[in-house]
Write the structure tokens for this entry.
Amino acid sequence: MSEATLREQIEAQLKTVFDPEIPVNIWELGLVYEVKIKENNRIGIDMTLTAPGCPVAGDIIREVDEKIRNIEGVSDVDVHLTFDPPWTKDMMSEEAKLELGFL
């Protein structure tokens, strides 16, 4: 599988993960900072949350891990949670801002 196709599958899966408090997926919210496809299709995901004290942080990270791990050809997944830089509403897609009434 080409890296471009794998990246598309990863993005498609990330768009199915939602913050339970916000009706927008984590991709459109801008919570995914980087997707790295490493040797042997080991996937690294750098992401954040809307708030450091997010009560469902573990659930979101677990869901990301499981959904990426289930993509055919993926050998391993490393989800790295960071709060640097801190998330702001400016990181959301135009679509997410529109849906949440920020535009």
Summary: The longest strand covers residues 32-37. The domain at 3-83 is CATH 3.30.300.130 (GMP Synthetase; Chain A, domain 3).
